[in-house]
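Subject: sequence -> C-alpha cells, single chain

Hey, anyone have a minute? Need the predicted structure for the following. Not urgent.
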Amino acid sequence: MHLPVMVRSDRNYAKAWNRRGNVLNELGNRVEALNSYEQAILIDKRYLSAWNGKASVLSQLERYSEALSAYDYVLNLNPN
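Reply:
Had a minute. Here:
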C-alpha cells in the first residue's frame, strides 16, 4: 500500500505519519516532515521514532533548543 493511501485510510496510524515524515525529510521538505512527526506523536506520545525524527528535523531547521527538548524526551522514555 502506498504511503498517502495509508495516511488517508487511517488518520490514527502513527507509523504511517512517521514514515511520511521520513520521506519528506529525505526530500528536503523539513516543515512538512516536522508536521508529520508531530501528527504521529499526537497519536502515540511514546513513539520513539517520531520523536527522533522530530528532533532531527528541528536540528536541521536550526531550532536547537526545541531539538534538545525532543532528544531529552526520547532519553526519558528510553534511557538505554
